[in-house]
Amino acid sequence: MNDWQVVEWLEKEPRLRASILIPYEYPDLAVHEIRRAARAHHGFVQILFLARTREPLGRPHYWPIYEAASEVGLPVALHFGLLGGNAVTSCGWPSFYLEEHTGMAQAFQAQVASMVLEGVFERFPQLTVALVEGGFAWAPSLMWRMDQHWKRLGEDTPHLRHAPSEYMKKHMALTTQPMEEPANPGHLLDVLDMLKDGPRLMFATDYPHWDFDAPDRAFPSQVPEDVRRQIFASNPRRFYKLDARPSPAQDV
């Protein structure tokens, strides 16, 4: 699949960038593929997981993958989807897709808490993580909740040298799909203001799925132009270090 991406997409359209697909439940194979694909083409800019995994992503089972990601200088991305062999909610299996779709944000929050509290970013300080298409309005409250519990229960995690929110701000990025659309558009501005110091927020479209966000219609008109520019351009350019990476067209 990674070779197919190179031949059919990256070499045909130099503006595109791609994710390295890995068998992340088999870390030894995943590490080999990360090193191979990262060397094969500069158009790969991240390493892809799906949000529902067999174990929480902070567990040592996945650490070799984070080590390899740090080695090749690529972020890890968690994308909406999959079944990891466990019930998709903490209370069991839902009855309707509407429940599952709504509850996907819980998987992202559980993975964030696991990676932060297990000390992944202390062990791999260069690692960055993009949370793709899992929403973003939940991030401020999750940071507050983890910080408050850490103040009372921090002795359980002596490996953490900073408040949990600091790891999210420094190491994580969020995407706008699905766009959070409160009845009062001003509340969206409040959330964006809460996120201005991190984690970075980047635009995602999810085209051509039925619930995709069109770039020209995704944001209410009240969102300031400078904030739009950050979300559409400057934040992803910094997160993926696009200006520092050679153009895929230069590859042989």
The gross shape turns out to be globular
Strands, count? 6
Total DSSP helices: 9
CATH superfamily: Metal-dependent hydrolases
Quote the distance from N terminus to C terminus. 19 Å
Poorly predicted spans: none
Bin the strand percentage. 5-15%
Task: Provide the helix percentage.
Answer: 40-55%
CATH class: Alpha Beta
CATH topology, anyone? TIM Barrel
Question: Which oligomeric state applies?
Answer: single chain
Question: Can you tell me the number of structural domains?
Answer: 1
Main sheet characteristics = 6 strands, parallel
- Which class of secondary structure composition applies to the elements? alpha/beta
Query: Helices and strands, in N-to-C order?
Result: HEHEHEHHEHHEHEH
**Strand arrangement, largest sheet?**
1-2-3-4-5-6
Radius of gyration: 18 Å
Reported CATH architecture: Alpha-Beta Barrel
The average pLDDT score comes to: 93
